[in-house]
Amino acid sequence: MRARSRVALCAAVAILAGLTAMAAPPVELIVWHSYRGGEAAAFEKVVANYNAAKVASGVKIITLPVPYDALADKITAAVPRGKGPDIFIFAQDRLGGWVEAGKTIEPIDFYVDKATRDRFLPSTVEAMTYRGTLYALPFNYKVITMVYNKKLLTKVPKTTGELVTIAKSLTDASTGRFGVAYWYSNFYYHAILMNAFGGGAFDAAGKPILDCEGNAKSLDLLLKWVDKDKFLPAEPSTALVTALFNDGKAAIVFSGPWFLGEIAKGIDYGLAPLPTVDEAGGKPMRPWMTVEGVYIAAGSKNKDVAYDFVKYVTDVEAAKIMAVEGRQTPANKLVYNDPQVGNDPILKVFRQQVETAVPMPNLAEMSMMWTPASSAMAAIVQKSATVKAALDQAQKEVVESVKLLRKQQ
Amino acid sequence: MSQKPSHRRRFAAGLVAALVVGVGLSHWTLVRARVQENRARAERVALVSLNALVDIVERAGGVGDSVRRAVAVFARGSSALTTIRVVAFDGLSLEASTASADGGDKAAPRRLAREEKPLYDQGQRLRAAVETNHQEGGARKEEIEIAAMPGGGLALAAPVTKEGAVVGLVAVETTPVPSPPRTSWLAPLAAVLIPALAFLVLAVPIAERRWVLAVVAATLLLGTMVAYGRYAFATMAGDRRITERTVAGEVTAEAARASSVVSELSLGDPRTLHPGSWDADLFRRPLELIAPDGTVHEAKLAESLAGAAGRTRQVFGAFAVLALALLAFVGFGSATRLGATLRKHRQAYTYTFPALFGMLLLVFLPFLYGVVLSFSDMSLYTSQAPMGDLFSKLWVGLKNFTDILGDFHVATSTAGGLVWNYQNIYWTLGITVIWTVANVAYGVGMGLFLALILNTKGLLGRPYYRVLFILPWAMPNYITALIWKGMFHQQFGVFNQIIQMCGGTPVSWFEKTSTSLFACIATNAWLSVPFMMVISLGALQSISADLYEAARVDGATRWQQFRSITLPSLKPALVPAIILSVIWTFNMFNIIYLVSAGEPGHSTEILITQAYKFAFEQYRYGYAAAYSMVIFAILLAYGVWQNKVTKATEGI
Amino acid sequence: MSVGSRTGDFPHLPLHVILLIYVVVTLYPLLWVFTIGFSGQQGLMIVDIPANATFLDRLRAIMPWPAHFSFSNFTSVFTEQPFARWLLNSVIVATATTILGVFLACTAAYAFSRFRFPGRRAGLMSFLVSQMFPGTLMLIPLYIIIVQWLGLGSNFIGLILIYSITGIPFCVWMLKGYFDTIPRELEESALMDGASTATIFYRIVLPLAKPAVAVTALFSFMTAWNEFIQAATFMDKVNMYTAPVGLRFFVGGFSQQWGYFAAGAIVTAIPIVALFLFLQKYLVSGLTAGAVKG
Fold first, then answer.
1. d(Cα A301, Cα B119) in Å, to the nearest integer?
2. Which of B125, B140, B486 sits opposite A408 (nearest CB)?
3. How far is Cα B223 from Cα A354, in angstroms, rounded to an integer?
4. Contact A295, A372 (CB under 8 A)
5. Measured between CB atoms, which of B124, B491, B602 is closest to A133?
6. Do C108 and B356 touch (CB under 8 A)?
7. Total-model pTM
8. Which domain does C196 fall in, by range?
9. Model confidence pLDDT, tens digit, residues B220-259
10. What is d(CA C21, CA C1) in angstroms, rounded to the nearest whole number?
11. Structural domains of chain A, count
12. Distance between CA atoms of A396 and A383, rounded to whole angstroms?
């Protein structure tokens, strides 16, 4: 009996839907993302809301989670061959490469009006822009900030001067306690200092600047911390940092939202914006920002409909769900006016931190930066090369790789 | 065989087959070349019109009524351009249009409609191309786009520049490209029939003298190929001359028209127009084949034709070689023998066919793609180029290989001693060899050792040991490799704890090449024991117990039994396993990538991790493919050598 | 049989000592996987110890044992995602791969071992050579072949084909090696009795080659069981993923949930162990000797 009544109900709904949308044939749009757990659940909720609102028009969004390690390859294999999704969510690091290769992502400048553009944090829009064209609406961002153990830290440092004093007082090598722990030998994490000194990876014209003065100064400061002030652990890695913090052996950690999920229950932690750097004339530490964007696949047959969804998921209503339930930090700045988001002790800090953040370059050439830069960092931290020699070597390698890629006709 | 095969008949058949293939391919090339030339001609003519138009639009300021007027006047006299549209980025505006659909309430100026998005995107693409080329100081991205329309016409688009910035685009459509000239079938038909008949006639006095028949057939074939090649190239050159004349005519005509438009709308001095630069490539670089006065630069044309002749000769030469091979194959009876062999061993071929076919499709075909790729300089930027480009635009011959193998900069000697260049392939090869030998030696040694112990009759708990020993194989190595990496941590790793327990000082494993490589090898060796143990366990079963019995009766010691019975009996199974495991270890990407990641300073990279780096960090696919081919060649050389030494394939 | 031990009457005690030492070497890293899996936490940390610890401190620290036992990682793996379904998919794909792979390899290897035909050496060599191809840029061509040409995108058959064919070269070489050691007299006498080739193969050769078939089956199964990138690339539906794909959700990009990963890895290792237990009897049954006699 129940089954029959359900069939009847379905039929009624179908007829109703058919009446209201006579002309609109059912459209199914596929979305690929790499979410899991809470993020995935929140995203599914957003999609369900959208689908419910669109029942009449026959538009239906279907999602497919793909492991992060496979998503980019899967997109690169499928989309240019006319397969794959209509929409996908990915960070900006592949953007330049996909644009240069072609047939992968659809430019959306044409769709985006001023009101839509203005609802995002400007730097997140910048992250989605390649050579003057916008390719996706920013969805959320991730930045490194300061995470501290409330039990160990009584006063939150505002400057590197305070940081060093506090960190030194909390460090005790004999018991394996450290004032600060972060993956300082990693290029991505080191960017917080590098950008503070005005250094970076590429200049505005896309030329590598690894050997610039700002980068050298930032490394000098790091070496001082490691060698002289000695409040950092040796051979850092994410695993080590997590373990130290969870055992209450590291008072301060510089890390991003991904770290929060790894903090053990029972650790009372707080977040605060990264301190300013006295050595850089009081400029703030500037973390790199990773922005996830919602892209429309170049091969989609329903780009207009797809854009409607892209606009919806990046709007306030969806952003709130993603922030509150998915624990994301939305790129939509309007959502922070909502007290539930704006007063959230964690989201609030990330929102503050983003003001000093720099979008990570979205050039394809960025991928050539990591290996030489990490080698240089390792060599410098292990004292097997001077700062200058290591940076010059890395710069040489990157310049050579870039030259070999950009073959001229 | 009941009937003695006739050499004459075979060579006749071979010659006909070779002629059909050789002449057929040549003819197909000719027809295609003519189609291409026809298309190129239409494109150049259209480009001249477009460039003239862009010049005028830019003079008219790119936006506003003056542009609309200029376009209208320009379109009046043009027969080749069916529609002209001018788009300004600012305000997504259609500034001018001569399209019939854009009349009435859709007339320009107006905002672009949603379905006109591709037009706007095209403009943005061209803007980005211009800016990129400018920034990089070269010509990498095409600044003019040409596409074929469904109706046979061409759609072209060019950027509109104002004060150095691209502010819009001009998009035009042309009348359908005239159909390419018909190439007569008589010439190729004659090129097949005449030599074939000549052979039949000549073969009568030669009778069954095999080598004379071969020489005659080959001479006829080559003669035909040369003659047909000359005919084909003459036709192509003729087409090319027509192109130059047509384009020259177009330049003159457009120059006159543009000049009249400029004077009529008073858009400046008509003498500042540069018609000579309108005949340009897609990077807007003038071809300089046509002089500004509309005459053809004969010297430049001759130079260009000579280049084309060289390329044509190569292609036709390849066809001739192919045809000759076919002639020899059929003429000397290999074809007949092949057919007979296939029939005779039908059963064997049926048994092996499914496996071979699958391998062909899923292993050898992708490999072939890699081979082709290795001769190109395909990169991320050109990764969506059509397959054909690999053989033309992107083809670089052996350059990748000479770049990789010809770099002998292995080390620099400085005041502080030798400084190794870890990026050099010979260093990486050295590391790879150490890595492979150490892993396989340990894997085989330990695997066999454990298998022998586990094969002891009556040993308690053998099934439990066996299961425990295969566990490393059962667990995904993604996590176990990282566990091993953690065990080598300087401060918190197990090994350093043990060293400290014994009173030593902790080692920074990943700071030195030797210790870093050791950490990787330890991990992989641990992972490779189970496989070798299972192989050995299986292999030990094929040894008959009677052999040991007999040996013992003869008073052989345990070691003698092992040497003269166990090892030789294990060989058929163990040697292939060792060869395969060398190959697999050589190409084992995961462990190095996860454990040392090449640290310190790329010194512990192996060849395969380097190849990945070139492909996925540097995006140089052609180079990475060539690097992979070098790896393949090294392994192949190893396989051949191993085969010689161990006679693994003895008796095959 | 009165033969007794094959390697003579070696004293068993030293053998046990050697084996036990190696058991420790084998298990130590794995115990850390278990420790992480049962810890209820997500870190991938090995030893937690102060810098100037005592001998006992260190000894305690290097013992792989979780501070608190918890099954929460295991329950989360199964409740947060359709992991059971993915395991089932893996079983289906791996089993089909094993059957197809062993079948293809057996027929080919038998032909290579028993028939003398032109191209035999070349064919055998080509199998070996195929293993030398570095897989650097294979994903895109494979995608074109499987999805565009064969239309097998998001279809288990595509994966099964890839996996079984990737495993063929090894299986053929292994099996051919074993087939070569089986005396031909058996087959020749059967042939005299009027048996067909197929009968001889299934009734005589295959039973004798059980250890080899067991090894190749295990290998085929493993090939399919652990592969990640192709499964993730070719499957376009959540309920068609295999277990390795599911596992990688835990540790890609910024998320590093090693506790879940370890728990999932332990679960996915169980079928391998079960398969090995099942195949063990073929690996140690001492066939040839008995069969020749019987």
1. 17
2. B140
3. 76
4. no
5. B124
6. yes
7. 0.90
8. 85-251+271-293
9. 999 999 999 999 999 999 999 999 999 999 999 999 989 9
10. 32
11. 2
12. 20
Reported ipTM: the value is: 0.87
- Give the C-alpha separation, B507 to A171, whole Å: 23
Class of domain B429-619: mainly alpha
Helix H or strand E segment including A158: none
Query: Are A282 and A353 in a shared domain?
Result: no
- Find out whether the peptide bond into B109 is cis, omega within 30 degrees of 0: yes
Residue C6 placed within a domain: no
* Touching subunits for chain A (3+ Cβ pairs under 8 A): B, C
Rounded-to-10 torsion of CA A32, A37, A42, A48: 60
Asked if A41 and A328 count as a contact pair (C-beta separation under 8 A), the reply is: no
Q: Do A57 and A201 belong to one domain?
A: no
Q: Are residues A380 and A259 in the same domain?
A: yes
Residue C185 lies inside a defined structural domain of this protein: yes
Element containing residue B342 per DSSP (H, E): helix B334-344
Q: Report helix, strand or coil for A29.
A: strand
d(CA C240, CA C85): 8
Q: How do the domains of chain B map onto residue ranges?
A: 7-39+184-334, 58-174, 345-406+620-652, 429-619
Q: Which residue carries 């104002």 as its tokens? A: B162
Angle at C181 between CA C177 and CA C186, to 5 degrees: 130
Q: Report how far apart, in Å, the C-alpha atoms of A117 and of each of A304, A317, A333, A350, B91 are.
A: 17, 16, 11, 21, 15
Residue type at B574 in one-letter notation:
L
Specify the pLDDT at position C1: 34
Asked whether the beta carbons of residue C5 and residue B458 sit closer than 8 angstroms, the reply is: yes
Report strand pairing: A129-130 vs A136-143: unpaired
Same structural domain, A72 and A134? yes
Select from B482, B526, B641 the residue whose CB has the most chain C CBs within 10 Å, as the one to mutate to test that interface.
B482
Taking chain B, what is the end-to-end CA distance rounded to the nearest angstrom?
28
Of A130, A203, A131, the residue nearest A395 (C-alpha): A203
CB A399 within 8 Å of CB A237: no
Domain assignment of residue C153, yes or no: yes
At residue B651, does pLDDT exceed 80?
no
* Residue pairs spanning A and B at CB distance below 8 A: 111
- A237 lies in the same domain as A386: yes
Instruction: Report if residue C34 sits inside a domain.
Output: no
CATH code at position A337: 3.40.190.10
Quick one: A243 and A370 in the same domain? yes
Question: B91: helix, coil or strand?
Answer: coil
Residue B554's SS3 state is: coil
Question: Are A95 and A175 in a shared domain?
Answer: no
- What residues in B contact A382, CB-CB < 8 Å? 508, 511, 600
CATH number of the structural domain spanning residue C180: 1.10.3720.10
Asked, for residue A378, whether it belongs to a domain, the answer is yes
CATH, domain range B58-174: 3.30.450.30
Least confident of B559-563, C47-51, C254-258: C47-51
User: For residue B343, what is the nearest residue in chain C, using CA coordinates?
Assistant: C117
Q: Which domain holds residue A315?
A: 22-142+290-359
Distance from CA of C237 to the nearest CA of B (A): 23
pLDDT digits over B87-128, tens only? 999 989 999 999 888 888 888 889 999 889 999 999 999 999
Whether the CB of A261 is below 8 Å from some CB of chain C: the reply is yes
Structure tokens at C131: 């293993």
A359, two tokens: 């979008």
Angle at the Cα of B486 from the Cα atoms of B482 and B492, rounded to 5 degrees: 165
For residue A392, pLDDT beyond 90: yes
Residue A135 and residue A93 in contact, taking contact as beta carbons nearer than 8 Å: no
| Of A371-380, B272-281, C34-43, C48-57, minimum mean pLDDT range | C48-57
Domain count, chain C: 1
Beta strands in B163-257 (DSSP E): 165-174
Amino acid present at A139: F
Q: C58–B545: do the CB atoms touch at under 8 Å?
A: no
